[in-house]
Structures are given as structure tokens and as C-alpha cells.
Amino acid sequence: MPLEQPILAPNVYDAEPIPEAARAEIDRLLASGDLFRYTSEGAPVARLEEEFAALIGSRFALAVSSCSAALFLSLKALGLPRGAKVLIPAFTFAAVPSAVVHADCAPVLVEVGADYRIDLDDFRAKLDGAAAVLISHMRGHTSDMDAIMAETEARGLPVIEDAAHSLGTTWGGRNIGTIGRMGCFSFQSYKLVNAGEGGILVTDDPDLIARAVIMSGAYEHNWKKHAVLHAPFARWQNRLPLYNMRMQNLSAAVIRPQLPEIARRVRDGRANHDHVAARLNATGFMQVPQALPREERAPDSIQFNLIGFRDDETRAFQAAAKARGVAVQVFGMSEDNARAFWNWQFLGPVPDLPKTRAMLMRACDCRLPARLTRAETDAIADALIAAAADVKGAKAA
Fold it and tell me: Which of 119, 186, 191, 383 could disulfide-pair with 324, CB 3.0 to 4.6 Å?
């Protein structure tokens, strides 16, 4: 009887196929040449905005070229003065402090703990003098939004949610991205909904959406083709600069048929994540932070901390996992990693953030798409556990 072949580590970089409905719509658009969102009423981008707002539970949505554009427009829509201090987590992607800088504001980095969430003591210590807060739910790990909103509301500070990794995540039954004044989502290839590039912002505030729509590039009276209130738009006509960050119809055609798939992807992604997390946590050498009590996560990747590893052992673990076909990114050890705050040299001198630095030096990141089978997720877990055993001995397994 032949020996059973081991399951090879899966390809975790390919996205799910784009639904067939998108192909028909793209063919229609190509035949018509109607790719600009303002060519006609009821364009695919406008329909996407209506559908996404309804799905997420917001009054308004604006589809733009990227989540970075959504963050930038959110900050500009708030009308913050030049040099205004905006609190952001020290663990986020470089696009977040970049958006703050582009909006002529000053990022203030807040410590992040071993659970990848805002350190609330440091957050409270830095609130005085801040004009706004931009919370990144990095890799889908939700900071304590009850505590954050209590502190900011007491000071009258607006909160923007960077929900690039959190589409489908809920906090107390409420969709992440709808808790602050504005929420921003990504449709980049490695996100839950894949358009290659693209983003969307949501808000319940008619004045903020009017300002954001006009600045996104709704020149002259194109804002009338948005299915939102017109009075605030007329107030801002010709009074705001245009940044031309609109989404175009082909991107919307790719996104719209994926919206009904979100619930299934969230369900499968959570099951995959929790299965692998349980196996890694059982080793005692790897620790996946638990969800907070009010958080229902929607992960498509897994993050874990190496426990008791030296620098050389951490590198050896990476190499051993790679030899088994599983790529592990250690945020603080990957050269020029855009998620390590000391690489954001455009901000000037590197701040002293010992908690975040220590976390980044042992925090591992591994893709875990919702489309994977149980056998494939076990192959990834097996490779990670065996890599830890290579470094720490058989007891790690």
C-alpha cells in the first residue's frame, strides 16, 4: 500500500476568481466606452456606493482610487488646520502616516501592545493637544472602540477608522468603520474584496460627504450625480481644491459582484484563522492574541508572537518555515518593512516606542485566505509548528 503523500503548503497569494457577473459588466462597459463615473446617471461606481453603504450600515459612501485616498480625503473633509496633531497607532502601514502628512497634519504615534492594539494608557497621555484620532485596526485586530470613543467624545475629537483590514468585522454587533465619524476600506488585491486597487469611505455626516465628494474630483456640478443630499454640496461648490481621486467604472464592475460573497468569506476566514490559532497556541512557543469580548473578527491572515525566541532564533524560525513552503514575515526584522515605524523616515526623528518595537521584533504575519481547505490550513500549521521545533526542540511540537 503506497504511503500517503503529505499536503504541500498551499499558494496563499492567489485571490479567488472574480465572479462571472463582473465579466459581463466589463464587456458591456468596454463596448460602450463608458468608463468615467460621471458620463451618465446611475454609473456602476454610484451603484457600488449605494450598495456598500446599505451593506455596511452608513448613510453615505464615496468610492475612490485607494484606501489611502479615502484616509486623506477624510482628514481633509474634517477641515483640520495646518499642522494639526492626529493620533495614529505606531503599528500600521506607512500609507497611514503618509495620508496624515499629505493632509498637512502632524502624526503623533501611539504605543501598541503585544496584542497589536492601541495601548490605552499611552493613548490617553497623548490626547491633549490632538485635533483628531485615526485608528488603524491593523491586520483586523480591533482596538477597544468603547474606550477610544469615550475618551474622544469627552474631548470633542473626531475619529476616523482605517478599516482596510476589517471589512466584515463587528464591534458589539456594529460594523467596524461605522463607529467613528468616517470609516475607510480597501479593495486592494490582498483584501477581502479584490479590485486590484480601490477604496471607499463611509460616513453619516452630510457635510463631510459633500466635502469629500467635491475634493475627490466632482468638478462643476458632477456632485449632482451622487445619490446624496444636495444642499451641503451647493455650499461647498468652488470652495474646495480638487484632488481627482475618483474610482472608475471598471473597478466598480469588479467589486459589486463580490459584495454578496463577503459573509461567506468572513465565515470561512474566521474558521481557518481560529483553527490554526488553536494549534499554534497549544505549542507554548507561539501566541495568537484573543479577540476582545465585543469583537467578531473577519481575518484573512494570521498574526502570532514568538515566545522566548532570541533574534537569531527568530531568523532561524523564518528560514525553517520558508524551507517548508510557508512565508512568515516578522514585521520588525524584514528590511525596510513599511509597517515598522522606524522606517517612516519622512516623519523625522524616530520616536521612542519601546512596547511597539518589542512587539514588532517577534510579531509574525502569515497569509491565510478564506478559500483554503482544512487540509491546507493544517499544512500551514504543521509547517509553522515544525519550524518552531527545529529551533526550540521537540517540545515545541
Answer: 383
